[in-house]
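Progress against Task 2.4 (sequence-to-structure conversion) is shown through the following example record, which the project officer requested during the mid-term review.
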Amino acid sequence: MLKDLKNFLLRGNVVDLAVAVIIGAAFGAIVTSLVNDIITPLILNPALKAAGVDKIAELSWNGVAYGSFLSAVINFVVIGTVLFFIVKAAEKAQNLGKKEEVAEEETPAPTQEELLAEIRDLLANK
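Structure tokens generated for the chain above:
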């Protein structure tokens, strides 16, 4: 039983998943800080200051704190947008090296004449 537990815990997928979760949490903290501390204040603070509000989360109407919900929606949209651009940049960086390798490995396609000559030769060998 302990051997099975050891095999399960040390299996490659479990270790990879654990590393991904830890790195994801660290990356999440970076993105959250970027959104909360840099992007959102640049976009929303001037408009809020003009309205006399310090933070979106402070907005309420008749005891309904709709500002917290609005803040969460804005954070979701901004975080999604930031992640979109980060993923696009990462994909572009990964594919940059691959395109150069593929370009070197590609061989030109045979011409129609070469294909017909090959078919002729195959039929002649029958």
